[in-house]
Amino acid sequence: MSADVRSLIALCEQFAIDPPVDAIAPLVRGLINDTYRLEAGGRRYVLQRINGHVFPEPERIMANLARLARHPDRPESLGLRVPALIQARDGASFVRDDAGAVWRLMEFIPDTCNLSRLQNVHQAREVGRVLGRFHRWTAVLPSDDFAVTLPGYHDTPSYLERLRTLFDSAAATPSGPEYADGPDRNQPEITVLRSFIEARLDLAEALDRAVQVGRIAPRLTHGDPKLDNILFDHDGQCALALIDLDTVQPGLIQHDLGDCLRSCCNALGECETDPSKVRFDLALAKAILTGYAETTCDRLSSEDIDCLFDGIRVMPFELGLRFLTDHLQGDRYFKVDRPGRNLTKARIQFALVADIERREPEIRAVIETAFG
Ligand code: GN1
Ligand code: MG
C-alpha cells in the first residue's frame, strides 16, 4: 500500500463511518476539486478535497451545506436528491489534512449514472425538472443565510476586464518575465478570439444592468448545473439528483438556466475540438425549459423570462472568457489534460455563443412557448 493511500485511509478514518476501508480510488469528476470513491464497512461514499486555490474559504461551502441540511423539508419530498454529508467523528462537517486542505465525505447516491450527453428530449425534460425542483426547494430559504463561497463567480464584467488587462499588458510587454509560463498572446488564433470578444463588450453587462434597474433580483442558485452534475437513474430515464453544491450561493436564475443550457444543448460537449461543428440544440433547449417551467410553475416573473435569452447567451461567453484567461495564465485554475486544452475549450464556448446569436429568434420563441 502506497504512502498516499495510507494517508487517505487515515483521513477517512476521521469520519464517522464503519470500518474497515475496503477500497479507495480516484473518481474523474469535475475540473476543480479532487474526488475519490470510497468503500468502507460495506457502504460507498465520495471523498473530496476542496480546491483551496479556487475557494478562498472552504469553510463557507461547508456552512452553506449545513444550512441546506437544516431545510425544514427534505428534498426528496419534491422528488430530488442531493448528497448528504457524513460528519467527522469530532462532530465537524469536514476534516483538515496536515497541509491545511479541507476534505469532506458524502454519501454515494446508489443506482445512478452520469450522462456524457443527452440522447433525447425526454432526458432533456428531466434535466429541466431536476433544476426546477432544486430552485423550488431552495426558494423558501433566505438567500442572506448563505455565504458567498466564490466571490465574483458569475461576475462576467470582471472576467472580461481581467482578460482585457491581460491582452493589453501582453501587447505592452510581450516577452516580460511575468509571461514566462504563459503562451504567446499574439498568436493569430487568440487575435481572432480577441476580436470576437471586443465585438461583444455589452453582452457582459446585460444581466448586471437588469439587476441594477430592478428588473431581476438575486436569489439562491446552484451555480454549476452542468450535465455532469446531474445524476440519472441507472437506465438514464429519470434525473434524480443534483450534485456539486460548492457554488450554492446568491446568484441569478438566468445564470443557472443559461449554464444548464450551455452545457446540455451543446451536444458535442465542452471537450469537442472543432468549433465549426458546434450547434445549440433547440429541441433539447425547448424540452429543458418546458421541464423547468412545469416544476417551477409561476416562480418566474415576466422580467425573469425576458432576461432568459441574455442568460443563455452570456454563460458560454463567460466560460469562454474564463477558459481563455486560464490558458493565457498558464492553466492555473481549471484542470487540463494537455497544454492548449483551455484554448480549445474557449473556442468551443465562443462558437456556441455565435450559434446562439444566429438562432436568437428561434430561441426566444422556444422560451415563449415553454413559459407561455
Ligand atoms: C467547473 O468543478 P466543476 O467541474 O463542477 C467550474 C464551473 C464551470 C465548469 C465547466 C467552481 O465546474 O464554473 O462552468 O467547470 N467551477 C468553478 O465545466 O469554477
Ligand atoms: Mg463545480
TrEMBL record:
Residue stretches making up the Aminoglycoside phosphotransferase domain: 25-269
Origin superkingdom: Bacteria
Keywords, comma-separated and alphabetical: Kinase, Transferase
Pfam families according to UniProt: APH (PF01636)
Gene Ontology molecular function terms on file: kinase activity
Designated name of the protein: Homoserine/choline kinase
Species in which this protein is naturally found: Allochromatium tepidum
